[in-house]
Amino acid sequence: MARARVQFICQNCGTVHARWAGKCDGCGAWNTLVEEGTSSGIGSGPQAASPKARKGRAVALTTLSGDIEDAPRITTGIGELDRVTGGGFVRGSALLVGGDPGIGKSTLLTQAAAALAARGHRIVYVSGEEAVAQIRLRAQRLDVAQQPVELAAETNVEDILATIEDGKRPDLVILDSIQTLWTDMADSAPGTVTQVRASAQAMIRYAKSTGAAVVLVGHVTKEGQIAGPRVVEHMVDGVLYFEGEGGHHYRILRTVKNRFGPTDEIGVFEMGDKGLREVSNPSELFLGERSAAAPGAAVFAGMEGTRPVLVEIQALVAPSPLGTPRRAVVGWDSARLSMVLAVLEAHCGVRFATHDVYLNVAGGYRISEPAADLAVAAALVSSLTGLALPADCVYFGEISLSGAVRPVAHAASRLKEAEKLGFAQAVMPPGSEDGSGAIASRSARPEALAELVARIAGSKAE
């Protein structure tokens, strides 16, 4: 009898190795290779081992042009959740939701399940980490216990499929979480790469064949990435991250992949004793505790997908007693802060070599777009000189290494949001599209960063 071949799979990235090694060749992680037999997993078994392959059948080829049908969606009525998903859950799609432990993933999905059940949809909530009694306690705290959501506590994929296929087809199936599921197709332990991949593929196959929407909850690693093989993120139709800081009461649901809608959308929620409450105007939340007279604070007009968001950027520049000054950043890219400091020193004559620099985005918000360069530079110069920036002014623009201010997209939307919140002037790049209203006529358009520094320093003389 032929001996079963053994392979070693990285539990971090899923790379297959012929022999064990201390370091994975794919991702560089240490001590992540686990021995797994080739007789387990997808595409294996007696048929896979047979040298005789089934003859393929020809499929029909078509053209790019043709009739287009909008994806059928299930709207929850929770505006922020529907915005992030692109208008609601798409029938027959699979969605992966990740987030830190205790951030509110189960709370959000319980509220979404109750909202859909109240609209007459059949919702099945399967938990592999909590008992049914625990889910009922959460539902009572959220005041949704009276909604007809069907619950189950099960981890075997075959049992789950047999349960949900009995009776009317469910409109939405929620699995919390994918790391706890296991299938008879794989021999490895639950949570391993093979089990996660096989379980996810079985549930995605069910969603595509029946038209039911499936939501998978995924654990995250200490680096903030969804745990398990990255192939699961490629298999699903959408990936959402639920973010938030432990010291803040708000949560952000962020889209990083969506085959049926735009990416980089965000939904803002506020955590309370009755669950998550959607925040329709997040700019007011991030600017709620703003001190207008304090130096080192600049309001940045940013964009998250199609939504403009105003957030305060705080900078503190203090003399350093150390030979190597500190550079601490919260909510922004530290490498980009180093670039802005270098441009200020090289092209504007502003010296930070003997000062500690601390940068913080208020409210625990995280900024990823380069349009925040101008607001960061304004906050740094304001803190260094001790001069407060105008309270009714917003800043946005990208800074190049030559010191020039480069235009950014969606300038009109940024100005419209700022004017709606009472801001009267803006500092923005030249050449940006003109917005409507008085704020566009009162905006300053510096061509170089040195002009902004001179503008801030000139306010002292006035």
Automatic annotation (TrEMBL):
Record has Metal-binding as a keyword: yes
For this entry, the protein name equals: DNA repair protein RadA
Gene, per the UniProt record: radA
Q: Which NCBIfam families match?
A: sms
User: Tell me, what does this protein do in biology?
Assistant: Plays a role in repairing double-strand DNA breaks, probably involving stabilizing or processing branched DNA or blocked replication forks. DNA-dependent ATPase involved in processing of recombination intermediates, plays a role in repairing DNA breaks. Stimulates the branch migration of RecA-mediated strand transfer reactions, allowing the 3' invading strand to extend heteroduplex DNA faster. Binds ssDNA in the presence of ADP but not other nucleotides, has ATPase activity that is stimulated by ssDNA and various branched DNA structures, but inhibited by SSB. Does not have RecA's homology-searching function.
Entries under SUPFAM superfamilies matching the protein: P-loop containing nucleoside triphosphate hydrolases, Ribosomal protein S5 domain 2-like
DNA damage recorded as keyword:
yes
Q: Where is the RecA family profile domain?
A: 70-220
